[in-house]
Amino acid sequence: MFTKEEIMNLLKSDILTLKLKPGTILSETALSERFQLSRTPLRDVLKQLSLESYIDVYPKKGNFVSHIDLDSVEQMIYMRSTLEKEIMKDLASQLSLKEMQELKEILDAQKAAIREENAADAFLGLDDQFHCTVYRLAGREFLWNLIQQSNVHYVRYRKLHMLEKGKLLQIWNEHQRMLEYMANKETAKIDDLVHHHLREDINSLEFLEKFSEYIKK
């Protein structure tokens, strides 16, 4: 027997990892059988998922995994870009050797993950770990946690981009340069790099055409 919280977390994970793709119908009957849970508590779970934008509920039609909202993605990119430029410049003035090593070890693990089968999931986890660590070392972990609360569209957008050939190595190289700029206090170079790192693909026609079925119209 699953608790409502466990079901919520499992469904969120399935949606964020694209195991449940945008537009997929979530049958109450199938979910009730899968989790051995009656309809009433299951509807509580679905209602909460709807409030957090994981699913869309259409009366008389059903529950569907939400399509990726590029407006939400752009807003998230804008916020992260604005914050991370300042956070990295602040951190450059105070980064210790121990903290540099902590970030380097994450990047070493991320580079190794590129060679793994189904690399995107492990790489994405380490991508988050790198950025989260930057926020934490700068004393801005609260802001990172705040970002995670409204991340459903952005996470899936990133996951789709990481399916592109060569994309993982490009992202890793940019992380490596971020660390080098912070370590060498080359703060004048940080703005352009962060801007490119976070915003390069948001207007990609190739992305829109390739994954149009997943994008909110």
From TrEMBL:
Any Pfam family matching the protein: FCD
Listed name of the protein: DNA-binding GntR family transcriptional regulator
Matching InterPro entries: GntR_C, TF_FadR/GntR_C, Tscrpt_reg_HTH_GntR, WH-like_DNA-bd_sf, WH_DNA-bd_sf
Domain of life, source organism: Bacteria
Molecular function per GO: DNA binding; DNA-binding transcription factor activity
Keyword annotations: DNA-binding, Transcription, Transcription regulation
The UniProt record lists the keyword Transcription regulation: yes
Domain HTH gntR-type positions: 1-68
